[in-house]
Protein backbone atom coordinates (compact mmCIF):
# COMPACT_ATOMS: atom_id res chain seq x y z
CA UNK A 1 0.00 0.00 0.00
CA UNK A 2 1.17 3.53 -0.75
CA UNK A 3 1.80 5.87 2.15
CA UNK A 4 -0.79 8.57 2.78
CA UNK A 5 -0.36 11.94 4.51
CA UNK A 6 -3.63 12.62 6.39
CA UNK A 7 -4.22 16.27 7.28
CA UNK A 8 -7.09 17.94 9.12
CA UNK A 9 -7.50 21.73 9.41
CA UNK A 10 -10.24 24.15 10.44
CA UNK A 11 -11.15 26.74 7.79
CA UNK A 12 -9.99 30.20 9.04
CA UNK A 13 -11.80 33.54 8.65
CA UNK A 14 -9.79 34.57 5.60
CA UNK A 15 -11.00 31.64 3.51
CA UNK A 16 -14.71 31.90 4.37
CA UNK A 17 -16.75 31.54 1.17
CA UNK A 18 -13.85 30.34 -1.01
CA UNK A 19 -14.07 27.32 -3.31
CA UNK A 20 -12.76 24.09 -1.79
CA UNK A 21 -9.89 23.75 -4.29
CA UNK A 22 -8.80 27.35 -3.59
CA UNK A 23 -8.95 26.80 0.17
CA UNK A 24 -6.92 23.60 -0.13
CA UNK A 25 -4.28 25.35 -2.20
CA UNK A 26 -3.96 28.02 0.50
CA UNK A 27 -4.05 25.68 3.50
CA UNK A 28 -1.91 22.80 2.24
CA UNK A 29 0.40 24.45 -0.26
CA UNK A 30 -1.01 22.47 -3.19
CA UNK A 31 -1.68 23.59 -6.74
CA UNK A 32 -5.36 23.98 -7.59
CA UNK A 33 -5.06 21.19 -10.17
CA UNK A 34 -3.59 18.84 -7.55
CA UNK A 35 -6.37 19.82 -5.14
CA UNK A 36 -8.94 19.06 -7.85
CA UNK A 37 -7.38 15.62 -8.43
CA UNK A 38 -7.63 14.77 -4.72
CA UNK A 39 -11.27 15.90 -4.63
CA UNK A 40 -12.08 13.82 -7.74
CA UNK A 41 -10.40 10.80 -6.13
CA UNK A 42 -12.66 11.11 -3.07
CA UNK A 43 -9.78 12.02 -0.77
CA UNK A 44 -11.33 15.25 0.56
CA UNK A 45 -14.14 15.68 3.10
CA UNK A 46 -15.75 18.83 4.45
CA UNK A 47 -17.37 18.33 7.84
CA UNK A 48 -17.33 14.58 7.20
CA UNK A 49 -18.96 14.67 3.77
CA UNK A 50 -17.60 14.45 0.24
CA UNK A 51 -17.30 17.64 -1.80
CA UNK A 52 -16.96 18.97 -5.34
CA UNK A 53 -14.14 21.35 -6.21
CA UNK A 54 -16.53 24.27 -6.75
CA UNK A 55 -18.25 23.87 -3.39
CA UNK A 56 -17.72 26.77 -0.97
CA UNK A 57 -16.18 26.45 2.48
CA UNK A 58 -17.37 28.26 5.59
CA UNK A 59 -15.36 29.58 8.50
CA UNK A 60 -14.94 26.92 11.18
CA UNK A 61 -15.67 23.99 8.87
CA UNK A 62 -13.33 20.97 9.23
CA UNK A 63 -11.42 20.03 6.09
CA UNK A 64 -10.02 16.46 5.98
CA UNK A 65 -7.56 15.66 3.21
CA UNK A 66 -5.65 12.46 2.31
CA UNK A 67 -2.55 13.20 0.24
CA UNK A 68 -0.75 10.14 -1.22
CA UNK A 69 2.98 10.38 -0.63
CA UNK A 70 4.78 10.05 -3.95
CA UNK A 71 8.04 8.12 -3.61
CA UNK A 72 11.16 9.82 -4.93
CA UNK A 73 12.35 7.64 -7.86
CA UNK A 74 15.94 8.70 -7.15
CA UNK A 75 15.87 7.86 -3.44
CA UNK A 76 18.54 5.37 -2.41
CA UNK A 77 16.93 2.46 -0.57
CA UNK A 78 19.47 0.62 1.63
CA UNK A 79 19.08 -3.13 1.06
CA UNK A 80 21.34 -6.14 0.82
CA UNK A 81 21.26 -7.35 -2.79
CA UNK A 82 21.79 -11.05 -3.28
CA UNK A 83 24.59 -11.84 -5.71
CA UNK A 84 26.75 -8.73 -5.32
CA UNK A 85 30.26 -9.81 -4.35
CA UNK A 86 32.97 -7.61 -2.86
CA UNK A 87 36.20 -8.26 -4.78
CA UNK A 88 38.33 -5.62 -3.02
CA UNK A 89 37.79 -3.00 -0.34
CA UNK A 90 40.12 -0.35 1.10
CA UNK A 91 39.96 3.26 2.26
CA UNK A 92 39.86 4.62 -1.30
CA UNK A 93 37.77 2.20 -3.36
CA UNK A 94 35.46 -0.77 -3.28
CA UNK A 95 35.49 -3.15 -6.25
CA UNK A 96 32.44 -5.33 -6.79
CA UNK A 97 31.21 -8.14 -8.99
CA UNK A 98 27.78 -6.95 -10.19
CA UNK A 99 25.19 -9.57 -11.11
CA UNK A 100 22.68 -9.18 -13.91
CA UNK A 101 19.40 -7.46 -12.98
CA UNK A 102 21.00 -4.85 -10.73
CA UNK A 103 21.25 -1.18 -11.72
CA UNK A 104 24.23 0.86 -10.59
CA UNK A 105 22.08 3.67 -9.15
CA UNK A 106 18.39 4.71 -8.96
CA UNK A 107 16.78 6.28 -12.02
CA UNK A 108 13.24 7.22 -13.08
CA UNK A 109 11.33 4.09 -14.06
CA UNK A 110 13.65 1.64 -12.28
CA UNK A 111 12.17 -0.06 -9.21
CA UNK A 112 14.70 -2.85 -8.83
CA UNK A 113 17.85 -3.29 -6.72
CA UNK A 114 20.89 -1.00 -7.08
CA UNK A 115 24.60 -1.14 -6.33
CA UNK A 116 24.50 2.05 -4.24
CA UNK A 117 21.52 0.69 -2.30
CA UNK A 118 23.46 -2.48 -1.51
CA UNK A 119 26.54 -0.58 -0.39
CA UNK A 120 24.40 1.61 1.86
CA UNK A 121 22.66 -1.45 3.29
CA UNK A 122 25.99 -3.20 3.88
CA UNK A 123 27.37 -0.20 5.78
CA UNK A 124 29.85 1.08 3.21
CA UNK A 125 30.56 4.80 3.27
CA UNK A 126 31.33 6.03 -0.21
CA UNK A 127 32.27 9.37 -1.73
CA UNK A 128 29.65 12.12 -1.58
CA UNK A 129 30.82 13.62 -4.87
CA UNK A 130 28.43 13.47 -7.80
CA UNK A 131 24.65 13.70 -8.03
CA UNK A 132 22.82 12.51 -4.90
CA UNK A 133 21.57 9.23 -6.37
CA UNK A 134 24.97 8.30 -7.82
CA UNK A 135 27.48 9.58 -5.30
CA UNK A 136 30.80 7.79 -5.62
CA UNK A 137 29.89 6.28 -8.98
CA UNK A 138 32.68 6.72 -11.54
CA UNK A 139 31.48 4.14 -14.09
CA UNK A 140 28.33 2.25 -15.02
CA UNK A 141 27.33 -1.20 -16.17
CA UNK A 142 23.93 -1.75 -17.77
CA UNK A 143 21.29 -3.57 -15.73
CA UNK A 144 21.61 -6.50 -18.13
CA UNK A 145 25.41 -6.62 -18.01
CA UNK A 146 27.34 -8.36 -15.24
CA UNK A 147 30.92 -8.07 -14.08
CA UNK A 148 33.57 -6.07 -12.29
CA UNK A 149 33.24 -2.36 -11.48
CA UNK A 150 34.82 0.14 -9.07
CA UNK A 151 33.16 2.67 -6.75
CA UNK A 152 35.01 5.56 -5.08
CA UNK A 153 34.95 5.75 -1.28
CA UNK A 154 37.06 8.90 -0.78
CA UNK A 155 36.65 12.29 -2.44
CA UNK A 156 40.22 12.07 -3.78
CA UNK A 157 39.50 8.66 -5.29
CA UNK A 158 36.34 9.99 -6.94
CA UNK A 159 38.21 12.89 -8.54
CA UNK A 160 41.15 10.78 -9.73
CA UNK A 161 39.06 7.92 -11.05
CA UNK A 162 36.56 10.20 -12.78
CA UNK A 163 39.48 11.86 -14.54
CA UNK A 164 41.04 8.50 -15.42
CA UNK A 165 37.82 7.32 -17.08
CA UNK A 166 37.50 10.68 -18.83
CA UNK A 167 41.08 10.48 -20.10
CA UNK A 168 40.54 6.83 -21.15
CA UNK A 169 43.45 5.52 -19.09
CA UNK A 170 41.32 2.82 -17.45
CA UNK A 171 41.62 -0.64 -19.05
CA UNK A 172 38.10 -2.01 -19.49
CA UNK A 173 37.96 -5.60 -20.76
CA UNK A 174 34.78 -7.44 -21.64
CA UNK A 175 34.03 -10.86 -23.04
CA UNK A 176 31.15 -11.18 -25.48
CA UNK A 177 29.68 -14.25 -27.14
CA UNK A 178 28.48 -13.04 -30.55
CA UNK A 179 26.60 -14.82 -33.28
CA UNK A 180 28.65 -16.03 -36.24
CA UNK A 181 32.26 -15.12 -36.97
CA UNK A 182 33.39 -11.48 -37.26
CA UNK A 183 35.44 -10.73 -40.36
CA UNK A 184 38.20 -9.87 -39.72
CA UNK A 185 38.57 -12.00 -36.58
CA UNK A 186 40.21 -9.03 -34.82
CA UNK A 187 39.57 -5.39 -35.49
CA UNK A 188 38.30 -1.99 -34.40
CA UNK A 189 34.85 -0.50 -34.75
CA UNK A 190 35.04 3.30 -34.93
CA UNK A 191 31.48 4.44 -35.40
CA UNK A 192 29.45 7.19 -33.67
CA UNK A 193 26.54 6.14 -31.48
CA UNK A 194 23.34 8.07 -30.84
CA UNK A 195 19.87 7.39 -29.51
CA UNK A 196 17.82 5.28 -31.90
CA UNK A 197 15.39 7.53 -33.82
CA UNK A 198 12.58 4.99 -33.60
CA UNK A 199 12.96 3.72 -30.04
CA UNK A 200 14.26 5.82 -27.14
CA UNK A 201 15.36 2.73 -25.16
CA UNK A 202 17.81 1.74 -27.92
CA UNK A 203 20.92 3.20 -29.47
CA UNK A 204 22.35 2.96 -32.97
CA UNK A 205 25.32 3.82 -35.14
CA UNK A 206 24.37 7.10 -36.72
CA UNK A 207 25.71 10.36 -38.13
CA UNK A 208 25.88 13.02 -35.45
CA UNK A 209 26.27 10.47 -32.66
CA UNK A 210 29.03 10.53 -30.04
CA UNK A 211 32.44 9.20 -31.02
CA UNK A 212 32.65 5.52 -30.02
CA UNK A 213 35.59 3.13 -30.43
CA UNK A 214 35.54 -0.60 -29.71
CA UNK A 215 38.48 -3.00 -30.16
CA UNK A 216 37.79 -6.73 -30.40
CA UNK A 217 39.74 -9.97 -30.75
CA UNK A 218 38.36 -13.47 -31.33
CA UNK A 219 39.30 -15.85 -28.52
CA UNK A 220 37.25 -18.85 -29.68
CA UNK A 221 35.45 -19.52 -32.97
CA UNK A 222 32.68 -22.12 -32.79
CA UNK A 223 30.04 -23.40 -35.17
CA UNK A 224 27.32 -20.93 -34.22
CA UNK A 225 29.10 -18.20 -32.29
CA UNK A 226 32.44 -16.62 -31.39
CA UNK A 227 33.81 -15.63 -28.01
CA UNK A 228 35.40 -12.19 -28.24
CA UNK A 229 37.62 -10.16 -25.93
CA UNK A 230 36.59 -6.54 -26.19
CA UNK A 231 38.44 -3.42 -25.06
CA UNK A 232 36.53 -0.17 -24.87
CA UNK A 233 38.26 3.05 -25.77
CA UNK A 234 35.09 5.03 -25.07
CA UNK A 235 32.19 4.18 -22.75
CA UNK A 236 28.87 4.86 -24.46
CA UNK A 237 25.62 3.33 -23.31
CA UNK A 238 25.13 -0.10 -24.99
CA UNK A 239 28.37 0.49 -26.95
CA UNK A 240 29.48 -3.13 -27.39
CA UNK A 241 25.94 -4.31 -28.12
CA UNK A 242 25.39 -1.59 -30.74
CA UNK A 243 28.77 -2.05 -32.43
CA UNK A 244 28.43 -5.84 -32.59
CA UNK A 245 24.92 -5.50 -34.02
CA UNK A 246 26.27 -3.04 -36.60
CA UNK A 247 28.76 -5.74 -37.68
CA UNK A 248 25.79 -8.15 -38.08
CA UNK A 249 27.13 -10.22 -35.18
CA UNK A 250 24.92 -9.28 -32.22
CA UNK A 251 25.64 -10.60 -28.74
CA UNK A 252 23.94 -13.95 -28.28
CA UNK A 253 20.67 -13.47 -26.41
CA UNK A 254 20.47 -9.75 -27.18
CA UNK A 255 16.99 -9.67 -28.70
CA UNK A 256 16.90 -5.87 -28.45
CA UNK A 257 19.68 -5.65 -31.00
CA UNK A 258 18.70 -8.40 -33.40
CA UNK A 259 19.92 -11.64 -31.82
CA UNK A 260 18.29 -14.90 -32.94
CA UNK A 261 15.58 -15.81 -30.37
CA UNK A 262 15.81 -19.52 -31.33
CA UNK A 263 19.53 -19.60 -30.48
CA UNK A 264 18.87 -17.63 -27.29
CA UNK A 265 16.35 -20.25 -26.14
CA UNK A 266 18.72 -23.06 -27.04
CA UNK A 267 21.44 -21.45 -24.93
CA UNK A 268 19.07 -20.70 -22.06
CA UNK A 269 19.80 -16.97 -22.32
CA UNK A 270 17.36 -14.31 -21.08
CA UNK A 271 19.86 -11.46 -21.58
CA UNK A 272 22.82 -10.57 -23.76
CA UNK A 273 26.00 -12.65 -23.37
CA UNK A 274 28.26 -9.82 -22.22
CA UNK A 275 30.46 -9.72 -19.13
CA UNK A 276 32.97 -7.20 -17.72
CA UNK A 277 35.85 -9.58 -16.95
CA UNK A 278 38.69 -7.22 -16.04
CA UNK A 279 39.25 -3.67 -14.86
CA UNK A 280 42.71 -2.14 -14.57
CA UNK A 281 43.68 1.35 -13.39
CA UNK A 282 46.10 3.37 -11.31
CA UNK A 283 45.00 3.01 -7.69
CA UNK A 284 43.93 6.48 -6.48
CA UNK A 285 45.42 5.87 -3.04
CA UNK A 286 48.75 4.19 -3.78
CA UNK A 287 49.45 5.16 -7.38
CA UNK A 288 50.16 1.49 -8.21
CA UNK A 289 48.57 -0.15 -11.23
CA UNK A 290 45.92 -2.63 -10.04
CA UNK A 291 43.73 -5.08 -11.90
CA UNK A 292 40.60 -6.91 -10.78
CA UNK A 293 38.76 -9.79 -12.44
CA UNK A 294 35.33 -11.42 -12.46
CA UNK A 295 34.45 -14.98 -13.49
CA UNK A 296 31.57 -15.76 -15.83
CA UNK A 297 28.26 -16.13 -13.98
CA UNK A 298 26.43 -19.44 -14.25
CA UNK A 299 24.02 -18.47 -17.04
CA UNK A 300 26.79 -17.23 -19.33
CA UNK A 301 29.06 -20.20 -18.56
CA UNK A 302 26.19 -22.59 -19.37
CA UNK A 303 25.54 -20.88 -22.71
CA UNK A 304 29.23 -21.00 -23.62
CA UNK A 305 29.39 -24.70 -22.69
CA UNK A 306 26.45 -25.43 -25.02
CA UNK A 307 28.16 -23.53 -27.87
CA UNK A 308 31.43 -25.39 -27.31
CA UNK A 309 29.62 -28.72 -27.30
CA UNK A 310 27.85 -27.95 -30.60
CA UNK A 311 31.04 -28.03 -32.73
Question: Secondary-structure map with pairings?
Answer:
Elements: E1 4-10, H1 20-28, H2 32-40, E2 44-46, E3 49-50, E4 62-68, E5 85-89, E6 93-98, H3 115-121, E7 146-152, H4 155-166, E8 171-179, E9 186-190, E10 193-195, E11 203-205, E12 213-221, E13 225-232, H5 239-246, H6 261-267, E14 274-282, E15 289-293, H7 298-309
Helix pairs in contact: 1-2
Q: How does this structure look, described?
A:
There is one protein chain. The chain is of the alpha+beta class and 311 residues long. It folds into 3 domains: 65 residues, RNA-binding S4 domain (Structural Genomics Hypothetical 15.5 Kd Protein In mrcA-pckA Intergenic Region, Chain A, Roll); 96 residues, Pseudouridine synthase, CATH 3.30.2350.10; 144 residues, Pseudouridine synthase (2-Layer Sandwich), CATH 3.30.2350. A hairpin with a 2-residue loop joins β2 and β3. The model has no long low-confidence stretch (mean pLDDT 92).
Amino acid sequence: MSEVDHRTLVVPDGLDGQRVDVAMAQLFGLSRSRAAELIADGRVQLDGAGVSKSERVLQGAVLDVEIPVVADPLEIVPEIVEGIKIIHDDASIVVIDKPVGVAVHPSPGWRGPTVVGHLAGAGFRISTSGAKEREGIVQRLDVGTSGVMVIAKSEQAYSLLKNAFRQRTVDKTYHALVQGHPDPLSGTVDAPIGRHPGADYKFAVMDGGRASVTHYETLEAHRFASLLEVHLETGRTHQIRVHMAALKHPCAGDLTYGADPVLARRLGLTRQWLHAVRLGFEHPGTGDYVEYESEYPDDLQHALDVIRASD
